[in-house]
Automatic annotation (TrEMBL):
This is PLAT domain-containing protein. Keywords: Signal. Residues 21-146 form the PLAT domain. The keyword Signal applies.
């Protein structure tokens, strides 16, 4: 009997560790001159224990035919995958720096995870408020927002 209980608990742990979630990401581009970009944008969010969701390109997660990352706009991206075990607290946002307008001013990124089985949610807003551009300070095409220590 003890073996059956142990196997049941193990199966429950494994199934919840691989639960599927829907992810909604809202990216707000600043309302500054030349704030928008045509570059490819990637996103990685992670928990305090290092579990990650990596999106190599946000474009396939967005609306087909929509021009993303325009000045003063908020763009919505949706996808699904393996749930993060806890609320994310770290984000890496990166531009490839290519396209007609490679520089980009990002206000914020809002992340929501919805577990498909029980509809529980984990939400986090990452305030960026800076350029991802080689020709604007601080001169980098990526930003890391780490709120894990807070």
């Amino acid at each position: 009997m003890k073996i059956l209980v142990a196997l049941f608990l193990l199966a429950l742990t494994v199934s919840s560790a691989y639960a599927q979630c829907k992810f909604i990401i809202l990216v707000t581009t600043g309302d500054r001159e030349d704030a928008g970009t045509d570059a490819r944008v990637s996103l990685s969010v992670s928990t305090a224990n290092g579990k990650k969701l990596v999106i190599k390109s946000l474009k396939p997660w967005g609306q087909k035919g929509h021009n993303n990352f325009e000045k003063g706009h908020t763009d919505k991206f949706e996808g699904s995958g393996k749930c993060l075990p806890s609320k994310p607290c770290r984000m890496l946002l990166e531009s490839n720096g290519k396209g007609n307008k490679p520089g980009w001013f990002v206000d914020k990124v809002a992340f929501t995870q919805i577990e498909q089985k029980n509809l529980s949610q984990k939400e986090k807003t990452f305030n960026v408020n800076r350029w991802l551009a080689r020709d604007e300070s601080p001169g980098t095409l990526f930003v890391v927002v780490d709120d894990c220590a807070k």
